[in-house]
Amino acid sequence: PPTKHRDGFELISRQPIQWQSAPTVTASNNQLSIPSFHDITYHISLDDQCARIAFDRPEVLHAFRPQTIREIQQALELATEDGRVGCIILASNNLSKYTPAFCAGGDQTVRSNDGGYQDGTETAPKLRVLDLQVQMRRCPKPIIAVVDGYAIGGGHILHMVADITIASDRSVFGQTGPRMGSFDAGYGSTHMARLIGQKRAREVWFLCNFYDAKEAKEMGLINAYYPTSELEGRVAQWVRRVIMNSPTAIACCKAALNADEDGGAGIMQMGGELTRMFYMSKESQEGRDAFLQKRAPQFRSKL
Ligand code: S0N
């Protein structure tokens, strides 16, 4: 394995990641069952310590309905719980007979008149994708969006909320809300402004222009783009580089970067990481032990 962490990127293998479908997942020795997914696929790679969650509705450019979002949430929880997974990819399964896309946003055929999306699987219309955005932010593992084709509307927001975005050179980015009668006043607006600046964010939303991969890179919307034929191998390099690094340090960096933007919820995420680490210390364990042994704690002796 490559040992250089700086300037050694080119030394990392570009062999595409070998995915295994739905292997048994263990978390703390408990077996987790893998649900059967319809709108997405879920794979992991034990060699590259990575999970891949992919939209699988190419006929509608991977537009999401409530079921799609619910399945991604389940898959994201599986990947978060799985100790063998250090990095999570959010991608799409493109087929050559359809226009390539990462995600064309909310499925307009199931947009109801009653305040959300209703595909028959919800008790009431919902804007479930907002819950997914929060789950992605709270996930302590790095999430890499792999964009190959259109990333539009709510799909565009999902790649922005991911920690890193790697795209193909045929990708197209944009918001259509004001043209389609919708908007995202949460991360879709505030996080976008953090990424590309207030003036550019207003342009993206007010004009509903589309941007190619080169423009998106220049704006700071994405981290990198590559020729489509190279995308898989390049993504493998990014993943291999990320999983070389300390998972705890990455989780704390992600929490810190979120805290700046997420107010009390962000501080809670950061605080949660601190508490988790404190629980591993002798000092913290002394408090528990003293309680269980019905004696006064001797914290200083454990420093
Ligand atoms: C991406 C575009 C420009 C591609 O054009 P192209 O190449 O001409 O392909 P099409 O022929 O248009 O598309 C191929 C097939 O895919 C269907 N399709 C595409 N997008 C959708 C979609 N979003 N919903 C349903 N179907 C879609 C086409 O209809 C076509 O099917 P057939 O072959 O049967 O005709 C072009 O496709 C385009 O402009 N798509 C629409 C992009 C868009 O506007 N998306 C919606 C944006 N809005 C949101 O995402 C809403 C988000 C939201 O509501 C929200 C807001 C705040 C908080 C929460 C939410 C939430 O979603 O919950």
What's the layout of helices and strands?
Elements: E1 20-21, E2 25-27, E3 30-32, E4 40-45, E5 50-55, H1 66-81, E6 87-92, E7 101-103, H2 129-138, E8 143-147, E9 150-152, H3 154-161, E10 164-168, E11 172-174, H4 177-180, H5 187-196, H6 198-207, E12 210-212, H7 213-219, E13 224-226, H8 231-243, H9 247-278, H10 282-292
Parallel strand pairs: 5-6, 6-8, 7-9, 8-10, 9-11, 10-13
Antiparallel strand pairs: 1-4, 2-3, 4-5, 11-12
The structure holds o-succinylbenzoyl-N-coenzyme A.
Task: Provide the gyration radius in Å.
Answer: 21 Å
Helix content bin: 25-40%
Distance between the termini: 38 Å
Structural class, please? alpha/beta
Q: What small-molecule ligands were found?
A: o-succinylbenzoyl-N-coenzyme A
The arrangement of helices and strands along the chain is: EEEEEHEEHEEHEEHHHEHEHHH
CATH class of the largest domain equals: Alpha Beta
CATH architecture of the largest domain: Alpha-Beta Complex
- The DSSP helix count reads 10
The count of domains is: 2
